[in-house]
């Protein structure tokens, strides 16, 4: 674990330098009668971190913790469009602060400089905010924000959340344009499947592990077009590992491997129903090829078998679920998709402040419990919330911030570790052992 000095510096700069500077540039704080920019940020971020569904009354009761005494009316009047714009600026500044810890040196993850999980989640907003954040339309909300992240499962480094219009495609988020680094592994779902981008990654020395789209076009290594569904049906292996060429244009072929794992009839039927329902909403009919491929879990990778076995590739793709758990934490623990008001400006303030809170929480958890490869991220977040007053005291200077963070780390480390199980081991234990238990 690296020194906590970078975390102390990041917190102090964000709260006492960046927030006041941005507030001054935007003319947010004219007189310091009730709030300074720093105390306003502390109140909103840590107030909603401590009480995610708090209204102005509960925030007013929390205000003494950050050194101010104000009425609920004073807080109500501060939740304006200008404040929301300022909080968004602070969030964007915080996103550029990249913290990481010592990378794991054992297990499957240790083979690669980084194991990057990429995904997005969409937060629906009231229709009154469609002028600012446009949704995808149709049956969905006319207003939505798409949050894009890229998370290194080895070092804990988090890029994002990057905010985009809800209607934007996943592959158009700013996190998707970031370089991966030679030798790194990039893991993503089918929404990111693009032969052009996969070809670029392959040329840059990046290993990709991704679920393909249903309209997958493949050829044998000799160049013969392959009916993948029929070919897989003729094989009886538990895990099928095929060397193929991806794409339908000979000059643009990409050498890769397709790893196929058969699923139960029940799972296959549910997948077909999902494909039919999705196609019906979009006004077309799914291809017979896509429906036939629903019988298998398919993974595409460019890693040679001597570097990554089929089971290891399946295990890395299973680890992609960790980013889904991160989004679940933000929603069920941070309640970033819920708000205590019906007023659009209030909702924006709450939404942006909660995202800042989730980012600060991520920084603290990285420093506090990333040493434990079997950490339960959700439980760690609950334990951190219990220690939040200690962090506020450190930020306000009543005790050294480094001492406060050290006490939080002591409270969290080892208290939220997932125990080993003889059956159905956790993903963390499988990553250390390099054994995919999904086949048993």
TrEMBL record:
<feature type="domain" description="Transposase IS4-like">
    <location>
        <begin position="113"/>
        <end position="358"/>
    </location>
</feature>
<dbReference type="GO" id="GO:0003677">
    <property type="term" value="F:DNA binding"/>
</dbReference>
<dbReference type="GO" id="GO:0006313">
    <property type="term" value="P:DNA transposition"/>
</dbReference>
<comment type="similarity">
    <text>Belongs to the transposase 11 family.</text>
</comment>
<keyword id="KW-0233">DNA recombination</keyword>
<dbReference type="GO" id="GO:0004803">
    <property type="term" value="F:transposase activity"/>
</dbReference>
<dbReference type="InterPro" id="IPR002559">
    <property type="entry name" value="Transposase_11"/>
</dbReference>
<keyword id="KW-0238">DNA-binding</keyword>
<protein>
    <recommendedName>
        <fullName>Transposase IS4-like domain-containing protein</fullName>
    </recommendedName>
</protein>
<dbReference type="InterPro" id="IPR012337">
    <property type="entry name" value="RNaseH-like_sf"/>
</dbReference>
<keyword id="KW-0815">Transposition</keyword>
<dbReference type="Pfam" id="PF01609">
    <property type="entry name" value="DDE_Tnp_1"/>
</dbReference>
<dbReference type="InterPro" id="IPR047952">
    <property type="entry name" value="Transpos_IS4"/>
</dbReference>
